[in-house]
Each structure stands twice: as structure tokens, then as C-alpha cells.
């Protein structure tokens, strides 16, 4: 039984140490018997040679043996389980392989290889059932020898590539699956052969010959096969296709990543870019996110898809590419992008439905409208092969679209990819819509904020001023703290810092009401304590009308604080009063810091003792620091007032090169990035008007002095170079002095102030306010104040301890034509 073919057949059959070979003639008679066969079945060669092979088998197998032997001669072989009969009468279960062979003389013969099953559990069932279990199993099963060459495999393994079982015999995995990562699989097999430990659940991800265009995943289990002496003879392994489970896991991982990375901010552009970043490379190689212009503005959108199919203005909000050269040209983030009217992106916008194409026409042009005069690139030039377009829709509103692209021809987008893209975009769409809604609300809040806080403090010559505001609500930028500077008559200014309870838009609304009320009261030229008294009454009445309790409600003005300061640059006189508010600090010209001993009156609307004011004279160059309590330590860390004043004094003593930098430095030093409360700081450095810009005269209460007052005022205007105002000033002085002499008592004082305007003031001892009359044509008088109101830019009355002052201002600039 020599010959090269016979040796190959023997090796391919079992390649195991315990295989027992027999040789049969074409009729099934035993022609070759070995010592191994004698030990297995008990027959000596003299009894076995010439004996019919069927005579060595149990009755059931003996009946079908002639048919199997006949087919083996034609088909080339057969393998399966048989029951052999020992010489002593007992039966043995043997694995049998019958293969056509050629004898030494060239005559046809059959090689039989027998391997005893050693009574393994479960092999007592019928052979037909066992063959169904192994050969007809739905999972791939194979056995390789110690050289990792196939010696047996079932038909189910063919579904993973590599051909039918007969073609695998004698080959290795690298021969039947050249495209897969066979090295890692064979490394596992060698590990099992060396250690004997079973490997279960090894997942291999890659491409196999049966599906070269798609990445697939297979679950493999490896078990070492040993002979009766414990020596390894091969590896038995199973293969299960788990590609669907692997892709589902990848899909869940991508969606989980999207949940973690998309929507981390409420910025629309950042959210769109996060969508592109997550999708590359997990789903696509190039992604663009284009949003409607109205979305970026945070505007409210109509429900449903975009009406019509015409060109819709979009803006590139995000893009990400896996390759530097993909695509060749790209619209940068923030730039406008326009698609052709009949292109798939516009159709997706108009219908609200997704679209994908596995293979783009490489010679077709792209859909984006390029610069005029430039030829539109083809998809081949852009490097785009497969595409998905998914509209971005949330809460029934279309926000834009997302384009997913691939360049690899071996892995185009399929329906599963489209479903994943839709899930990914739908999650991102909610975040984008939240960002849009936030942008809309924040824009509205900023409009409210700009209407409540002064964008620019008015120009004046009384103080150099700077302010810093830091809200606790960093999202909206709104808070209840506020500050203001109001020009008053006589070149004076009012400095105000206040605080309404709460944060956000409610507190800002309450603050707006307080600020409006203070500006209205300031126009009456009342002393600070009277301004706060009127403001307190107003808050109390408002709380009563709205049914608020004495503690107030969130964002309600009840319990608010305010400090009101009036500074006169003519004599440096400063008057202030506070309502439930910290006292201002004063930085002297030499840099030393003191705190005004100002009685802290009751908070607004809660009732209590009357407000008191304090007067002091500030040297020129002194700096007033008015602040809210957000600049101080939180209540749970604030042990004493002295602690706050020490911290504030140290910050104020470290002055910057400018008042603006000093103001910001104080807030940065005392307030964290996220303050526990809103913070407002107003710093005002005092100035003094040049003495040459103020002129005053005491006048006797004699009507004859009116003419002298006019001449004196005209002369002063001439010295100031304001001759063009002489005529109107003569009329204003004449009417105001005349009224003071006619209706008031005591001395009369005339004062002219040359500042940004020309101010004419007349002081008298009267306690009644003048009234503007509208005389009839037949009246002989009563036109004085009416004339003043027509000639002056503004006019009014303020009361002082000695009486009242009637004043009128004239602009120093010529009126526009």
C-alpha cells in the first residue's frame, strides 16, 4: 500500500496516533491487517485477511457496508460512525473513514481508518442522529491537526467562505480565507494546543471571502483534542456569525457617544460641530451640517418641512473629514452655502425625508453652487462615492440638513447605515433645537438687559466713571443688580447702585422697575433721603397691589437695596443716603481708603425708621466706590463687617493705571468666576469745575435790578466767548429774576455755570414751586416761564434748605437744521 496518493489520503483522514488502518479489495474483503487492528478487534491476521469487511461489523452496519464500499469506489470516500464486532463478541463504536486508494501493483483498493470512540457519553444514540448533529449543524464546525490543517469540517462552515469540506482537507486557514486576519485566529489555536485550556467566545472582526465588501464579526470557540495518552492531536473549533450583534453594539456605542458629546453647550455652532465630530469616523468619512439662517439667529420657525423646492439659504455650521484631501474644496464653518434648487439636499429639506445613494455617479457634478465663473467639480474630483442626506428635524420643525459621505468603494452606505444616521441626527436635533431656543431666549434677555442697564454712561464733567457688572446667572447674563449715573441740574450728577432679590430674568424685570422709578424721582431734583422715601412708598404700594407679603417674592422689588449719591462739582459737596445697602468706600487722592459712616436705612418696602443722609466734601481726585453685597463674602462665610471691609480695602488700594482697569481688578480679586450673587461696582473719580466757569451775584429784591442782571449776565457771556447766547440768556435771566422778585421773599441770587451747557440759576427764599401757565391772548402777563421753556433745552426747580432754585439750561451747540 505504497504510493504518494495513499499517504496524502491517510494524512487527510485523521492524522492521529490511534487511527487503525485496514486495506480492502474493491469487493470489500480484507487484504491488509496490522497489529493495531488485531489489538482493536482481537482477530489475528490469519483470521482477518480474506474476511469480508461486513463480517467485522454489527448487523446494522453490515447490511449497508456493501453499498458504502461501492459508492466509495465511485465518490472517493465516506466518513462516519460504525459499530464493529470484537472477536470476543462485544461491540465497539468506531469513527470510520473509507477512501479509495491504489495498491503497489496499481490495482484499485480501499483504505479504511478506524478510531475507537472509547465509550464517550452520548455516543450510544443512533448514528443518524449523530450525523445530523455534526454534519447538518447550522454553526460552522471544523477540526484541524497539530499543523493547523483541516482534517474535517461540516457543510455549515462553507457559509463563511473557503469552499466545501472536501476542498478544505489538508489546507490551512490562510489558504481558504486569504483576506482575513488568520494570524490572530491561528495564534489562538496554538495557544489551545499548548495549554489545553478551552477558549470560548473569541470574537474576530474583519473581512472574509464570503463577504469581502463588509466588515463582519464571528464568534469562535476552540477545544483541544487529545489521544488516549493525553497527547494533543488537533483542535476542534466552532464558528458563529455575530455580525448583526457586532453592528448593533457599534450602533449603540456610537449613539452613547453622541449622548455624551453632543449638546455639551447651548451654542448652536458648537453643537453642530459636535454632531460632525461624533459621526466621523464611526459612521462616515466626511460629514457636513448646514443650518437655516433663522436657526442661527434663534428665531421661531414654522412647523413642518421647508415649503417649496427653491434655493434655501443655509449656513455651514459644522464639518469634519477623515482625510485632508476629502473633499477637495469645502465651505468653512460659518460661511453661507447654497444648493442647486433640484438637488437631493433641497428635496430632503422640502419633504422632510432622508435619502441615500450607495454609489454616486463619479462624473456628475456636486450640488453646491460654487463661485461664479468656476466650473463645478465632479463627485470624483470631490472624492465622494456614497452619500446619505438626513434632514435635521425636532419637535416638528426643520432646522437644516446633515450630509454623510464615504469615499471607499468597498463599503457603501446601506439601509442600516441610514437608520443609524437618522437616529444620530434625531438626537442631535433635540440639542440643536434646545440651543436655538436658548439663543432666542438669551437674545430676548439681552435686549431686556440692554434696556435696563446703561450701555454707556452719559458724558458729563462732574466725575470720571467706570462700572463692572457680573451676574450670577451666567447663561442669561441677567441679574437684579444695577447701577446708573444721572446728570442733574447745576452740573451735578446722581450716582446709584441698587439690588433686587433673585437672579435671572425675574430679578432683572424687578430691577428695571426700580431703575425707572429712580430716574423719574431724580428728575424732580429731590435730596437723596427723599428719593429713597418716595421709592420706598412706591415699592410698598406695588407689593400691596400685587398681594406680596413683607418678605417679597422671587424677583420682587420688596426688600431691595439702593444707595443714592449726589455730587456737586462746583464745591465738591457730596450727599448720600442708603436703603438696606452697604456704605460706599472713598479712595482719597493719596490712595488711602475709608468707608463712609452712612446709616443703613431699611430695605425698600419693608418699613422702618426714616432714611437719613450724610453730607461730606470730597477733594478733587477722590474716588467713590459704590457696590452691591455680591462683592462681599457669602453669608455663610461672612463673620463680621470688618472682614469684608478689610478685603475690600486691600482690593481698592491696589489701583490700576486707569479707572476701568481698577474697577475690573477689584471685581476679579474679590469675586470668583461664578459668583454666588450678582455683583455691581461703580467707581467715580471726582472732578471740580474751574472757578472761572462759575459766576454768581447776589441781587436785592428790587424790580429795578432786573436790567442790571441782564447786563451782568451778558458781560459774563462775552468773557466766556458765548456771545451767540446773549440774546436768549438776557430773556431767561430777565424772566427768572423778575419772577423771583415778584413772587418770592428774601434775597435773590443769580448764578451762571459754563459746563457742557450754559446753566442759569436763580435762588430765592420762596417755598412754592412755579407753575407753567398757558395765558390767553388777552392776558397781560403769565408768559415768563412759557417763554423760558421755549428758549431753554430744559428747565426745572429744586428745593434747598434756604428756599428754592429755578434753573434753565441752554445747549452750547447750534441746533441742527
What features would you describe in this structure?
This protein is an alpha+beta fold. 32% of the residues lie in helices and 28% in strands. It contains 21 helices and 32 strands. The strands form six sheets. It has a six-stranded antiparallel sheet with strand order 13-12-11-16-15-14, with helices on both faces. A hairpin with a 5-residue loop joins β6 and β7. 36% of the residues are buried.
Search tags:
disordered N terminus; alpha+beta; 817 residues; six-stranded antiparallel β-sheet; six-stranded mixed β-sheet; single chain
Overall pLDDT score: 83
**Helix count?**
21
- Rounded to the nearest angstrom, the radius of gyration is 50 Å
Measured distance between first and last alpha carbons: 127 Å
The main sheet comes to: 6 strands, antiparallel
What best-fitting shape do the alpha-carbon axes yield? rod-shaped
Amino acid at each position: 500500500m505504497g504510493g504518494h496518493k495513499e499517504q496524502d489520503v491517510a494524512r487527510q483522514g485523521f492524522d492521529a496516533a490511534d487511527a487503525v488502518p485496514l486495506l480492502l479489495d474493491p469487493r470489500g474483503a480484507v487484504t491488509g491487517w496490522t497489529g493495531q487492528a488485531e489489538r482493536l478487534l482481537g482477530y489475528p491476521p490469519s483470521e482477518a485477511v480474506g474476511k469480508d469487511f461486513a463480517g467485522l461489523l454489527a448487523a446494522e452496519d453490515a447490511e449497508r457496508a456493501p453499498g458504502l464500499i461501492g459508492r466509495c469506489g465511485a465518490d472517493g470516500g465516506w466518513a462516519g460512525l460504525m459499530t464493529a464486532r470484537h472477536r470476543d463478541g462485544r461491540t465497539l463504536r468506531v469513527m470510520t473513514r473509507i477512501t479509495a486508494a491504489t495498491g503497489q501493483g496499481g490495482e484499485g483498493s480501499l483504505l479504511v481508518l478506524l478510531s475507537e470512540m472509547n465509550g464517550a457519553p452520548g455516543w450510544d444514540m443512533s448514528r443518524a442522529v449523530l450525523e445530523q448533529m455534526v454534519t447538518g449543524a447550522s454553526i460552522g464546525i471544523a477540526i484541524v491537526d497539530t499543523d493547523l490543517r483541516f482534517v474535517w469540517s461540516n457543510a455549515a462552515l462553507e457559509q463563511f467562505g473557503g469552499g466545501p469540506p472536501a476542498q478544505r482537507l489538508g489546507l490551512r486557514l490562510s489558504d481558504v480565507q486569504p483576506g482575513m486576519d488568520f494570524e490572530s485566529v491561528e495564534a489562538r489555536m496554538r495557544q489551545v494546543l499548548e495549554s489545553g485550556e478551552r477558549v470560548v467566545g473569541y470574537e474576530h472582526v474583519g473581512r472574509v471571502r464570503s463577504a469581502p465588501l463588509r466588515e463582519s464579526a464571528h464568534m469562535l470557540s476552540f477545544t483541544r483534542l487529545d489521544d488516549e495518552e493525553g497527547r494533543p492531536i488537533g483542535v476542534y473549533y466552532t464558528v458563529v456569525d455575530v455580525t448583526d450583534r457586532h453592528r448593533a453594539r457599534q450602533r449603540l456605542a456610537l449613539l452613547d457617544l453622541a449622548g455624551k458629546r453632543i449638546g455639551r453647550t447651548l451654542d448652536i455652532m458648537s453643537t453642530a460641530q459636535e454632531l460632525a465630530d461624533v459621526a466621523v469616523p464611526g459612521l462616515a468619512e466626511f460629514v457636513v451640517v448646514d443650518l437655516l439662517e433663522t436657526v442661527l439667529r434663534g428665531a421661531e420657525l414654522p412647523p413642518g418641512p421647508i415649503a417649496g423646492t427653491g434655493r434655501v439659504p443655509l449656513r455651514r455650521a459644522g464639518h469634519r473629514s477623515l482625510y485632508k484631501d476629502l473633499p477637495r474644496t469645502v465651505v468653512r464653518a460659518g460661511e453661507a452655502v447654497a444648493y442647486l434648487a433640484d438637488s437631493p439636499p433641497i428635496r430632503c429639506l422640502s419633504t422632510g425625508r432622508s435619502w441615500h445613494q450607495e454609489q454616486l455617479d463619479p462624473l456628475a457634478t456636486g450640488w453646491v453652487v460654487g463661485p461664479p465663473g468656476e466650473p463645478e467639480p465632479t463627485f470624483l474630483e470631490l472624492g465622494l462615492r456614497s452619500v446619505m442626506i438626513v434632514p435635521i428635524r425636532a419637535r416638528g420643525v426643520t432646522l437644516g440638513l446633515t450630509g454623510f459621505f464615504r469615499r471607499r468603494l468597498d463599503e457603501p452606505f446601506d439601509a442600516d447605515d441610514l437608520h443609524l444616521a437618522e437616529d444620530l441626527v434625531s438626537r442631535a436635533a433635540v440639542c440643536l433645537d434646545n440651543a436655538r431656543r436658548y439663543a432666542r431666549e438669551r437674545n430676548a434677555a439681552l435686549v431686556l438687559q440692554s434696556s435696563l442697564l446703561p450701555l454707556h454712561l452719559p458724558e458729563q464733567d462732574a466725575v470720571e466713571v467706570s462700572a463692572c457688572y457680573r451676574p450670577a446667572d451666567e447663561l442669561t447674563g441677567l441679574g437684579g443688580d444695577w447701577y446708573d449715573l444721572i446728570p442733574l441740574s447745576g452740573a451735578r450728577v446722581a450716582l446709584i447702585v441698587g439690588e433686587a432679590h433673585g437672579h435671572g430674568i425675574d430679578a432683572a424685570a424687578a430691577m428695571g422697575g426700580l431703575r425707572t422709578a429712580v430716574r423719574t424721582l431724580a428728575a424732580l431734583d429731590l435730596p437723596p433721603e427723599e428719593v429713597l422715601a418716595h421709592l420706598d412708598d412706591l415699592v410698598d404700594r406695588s407689593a400691596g397691589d400685587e398681594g406680596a407679603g413683607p418678605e417679597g417674592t422671587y424677583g420682587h422689588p420688596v426688600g431691595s437695596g439702593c444707595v443714592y449719591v449726589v455730587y456737586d462739582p462746583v464745591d465738591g459737596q457730596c450727599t448720600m443716603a442708603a436703603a438696606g445697602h452697604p456704605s460706599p468706600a472713598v479712595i482719597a487722592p493719596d490712595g488711602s481708603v475709608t468707608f463712609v459712616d452712612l446709616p443703613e436705612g431699611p430695605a425698600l418696602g419693608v418699613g422702618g425708621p426714616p432714611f437719613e443722609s450724610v453730607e461730606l466734601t470730597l477733594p478733587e481726585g477722590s474716588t467713590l466706590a459704590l457696590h452691591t453685597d455680591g462683592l462681599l463674602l457669602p453669608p455663610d462665610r461672612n463673620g463680621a463687617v470688618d472682614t469684608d471691609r478689610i478685603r475690600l480695602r486691600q482690593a481698592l488700594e491696589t489701583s490700576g493705571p486707569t479707572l476701568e482697569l481698577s474697577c475690573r481688578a477689584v471685581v476679579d480679586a474679590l469675586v470668583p468666576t461664578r459668583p454666588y450673587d450678582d455683583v455691581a461696582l461703580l467707581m467715580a473719580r471726582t472732578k471740580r469745575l474751574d472757578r472761572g466757569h462759575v459766576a454768581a451775584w447776589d441781587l436785592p429784591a428790587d424790580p429795578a435790578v432786573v436790567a442790571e442782571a441782564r447786563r451782568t449776565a451778558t458781560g459774563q457771556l462775552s468773557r466766556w466767548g458765548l456771545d451767540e447766547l446773549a440774546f436768549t440768556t438776557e430773556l431767561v435771566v430777565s424772566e427768572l429774576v423778575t419772577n423771583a422778585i415778584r413772587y418770592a421773599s428774601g434775597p435773590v441770587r443769580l448764578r451762571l455755570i459754563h459746563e457742557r451747557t450754559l446753566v442759569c440759576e436763580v435762588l430765592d427764599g420762596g417755598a412754592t414751586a412755579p407753575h407753567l401757565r398757558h395765558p390767553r391772548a388777552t392776558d397781560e402777563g403769565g408768559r415768563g416761564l412759557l417763554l423760558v421753556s421755549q428758549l431753554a433745552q430744559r428747565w426745572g426747580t429744586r428745593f434747598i434748605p434756604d428756599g428754592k432754585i429755578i434753573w434753565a439750561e441752554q445747549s452750547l451747540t447750534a441746533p441742527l437744521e
